[in-house]
């Protein structure tokens, strides 16, 4: 059985490794000619960490990243809105969140795939056609026959288009700027992820490696993305703790983008093709779960393809297993992002956070972090 994965992002690469771990051969086709360390930081929460451990690459990820044993939402002066114990943001095995440069993570995953000879770069996918016998994938410069197509080609998925699954993008009206800076946080902040809330503004940061820090800002779109510079950001956050200004001042390259997600798709699969990761369920980053959900997809689709000979049955079981959690993440992340950027909404969220008992929070987090069988 030939399995072709379109897209060598976090989801596609992890899926190829998960299939390999279960003794199933696949090939990843990535449009880029080479990987470069673009992007900023990413926070991998315990559900993703469990899958990376299962794949045997957690130690390498950790040696390139930084453990965050506290994730806090704070006021502009860095005082937490609600003090919570560290175990609330870890899973029942004690796994915690890991911050890593997105490019580093992708390189680790890519190196594993390259060692196994299961990835081809420079392969922009165009479309596929299917007969009773097989499916032919057409790339820019060549065509390949396959039995199964896994579309891990991101929010603007061409595989999704080929499958004729209608999709609607939902722009949030919020602009996110991200950067990685050479910086050392004071010791008491070294292992903490912070999201600092102001009026219609958010600033998040954490240490990423020994000498680098990742930060992001989220602003309402009334500020034009083109006008975002170091100077304008400094002004936006001038009433925040001074560490915020020093991080902005230390920044070089900044990536600015409007946040958006994908409206719930009617289905993720056909008889021979299935969507994974952002191609199926791109979410806003407010819960820091987009890539984590793609990594979970890798674990579950590999399990399903191992258990069921019939691809459609495998896809159907996979979609059934994944829908509930994915919908929860996408919907809550969307709502949360809207509320936190409105004065009354933020007030309500803060009140809710304060009132929710730690036990309840811990239960909710553990449900989010649960991966069956791990
Ligand atoms: C501001 C921001 C912050 C975020 N922070 C976090 C976080 O802290 N934690 C977290 O878990 N998630 C986070 N996310 C979400 C996360 O970035 C995405 O969910 C994740 O990168 C999706 O991975 P993917 O592999 O599914 O898709 P992508 O990363 O989009 O990868 C798709 C791959 O497919 C390739 N491709 C596309 N088209 C073709 C084609 N036609 N042919 C061949 N190849 C193709 C692309 O080149 C790319 O390599 C964040 C997102 C944003 C926007």
Written overview of the protein:
- 43% of the residues are buried.
- A 6-stranded mixed beta sheet has the order 5-13-14-15-12-16. A 5-stranded parallel beta sheet has the order 7-2-1-11-17. The protein has a 3-stranded antiparallel beta sheet with strand order 3-6-4.
- The chain is globular and about 65 Å long.
- The chain starts with a strand and ends in a 5-residue tail after the last helix.
- Strand 14 and strand 15 form a beta hairpin.
- Helix 1 runs parallel beside helix 4 (102-116).
- Helix content is 38%, strand content 25%.
- It is of the alpha/beta class and 374 residues long.
- It has one domain (3-169, 261-369): 3-Layer(bba) Sandwich (FAD/NAD(P)-binding domain), CATH 3.50.50.
- The protein has 12 helices and 17 strands.
- The structure holds flavin-adenine dinucleotide.
- Flavin-adenine dinucleotide (FAD) binds next to helix 1, strand 3, strand 12 and helix 9.
How would you summarize this macromolecular structure in one to three sentences?
By secondary structure, the protein is an alpha/beta fold.
* Uncertain runs: none
Structural class: alpha/beta
The geometry reads as globular
What is the assembly state of the chains in this entry?
single chain
Name the features.
single chain; 374 residues; alpha/beta; FAD/NAD(P)-binding domain; six-stranded mixed β-sheet; five-stranded parallel β-sheet; 12 helices; 17 strands; binds flavin-adenine dinucleotide
Itemize the secondary structure elements and their pairings:
Blueprint: E1 3-6, H1 10-21, E2 27-29, E3 41-44, H2 46-55, H3 58-63, E4 66-68, E5 70-74, E6 97-101, H4 102-116, E7 119-120, E8 125-130, E9 135-139, E10 143-146, E11 148-151, H5 158-162, E12 169-182, E13 192-198, E14 201-209, E15 212-220, H6 230-236, H7 242-250, E16 255-262, E17 273-275, H8 278-281, H9 290-307, H10 311-340, H11 343-355, H12 358-369
Parallel strand pairs: 1-2, 1-11, 2-7, 5-13, 11-17
Antiparallel strand pairs: 3-6, 4-6, 8-9, 9-10, 12-15, 12-16, 13-14, 14-15
The protein binds flavin-adenine dinucleotide.
The site of flavin-adenine dinucleotide has 31 residues, from α1, β3, β12 and α9.
